[in-house]
Write a structure and sequence with these properties.
single chain, 5 strands, 2 helices, 80 residues, Ubiquitin-like (UB roll)
Length: 80
């Protein structure tokens, strides 16, 4: 198991009701972690264009997460 911190923004924060979660996870990738969060928090849904950052670096959903990582979840950025 890994200890990670998940920071939530916008719709993710609204769905779960908190800005940050410290949790233990068996997830291997950011995608696995997000699937785990969706299972545990019924208000959280698949966001196909959502972005993930690992330790403040924009990352791919298939990137591996490690013990102590900080994962940021935020919706896609729209421009105008």
């Amino acid at each position: 198991m890994k200890q990670v911190t998940v920071r939530l923004f916008a719709v993710f924060r609204d769905a779960i009701g908190v800005n940050e979660i410290d949790l233990q996870t068996g997830a291997h990738t950011a995608k696995d972690l997000y699937a785990e969060l969706c299972r545990d928090h019924r208000g959280l849904h698949h966001e196909p264009n959502a972005l993930v950052a690992i330790n403040e670096t924009i990352s791919d959903w298939n990137d591996v997460i490690d013990d102590g990582d900080v994962i940021l979840l935020f919706p896609p950025v729209a421009g105008g």
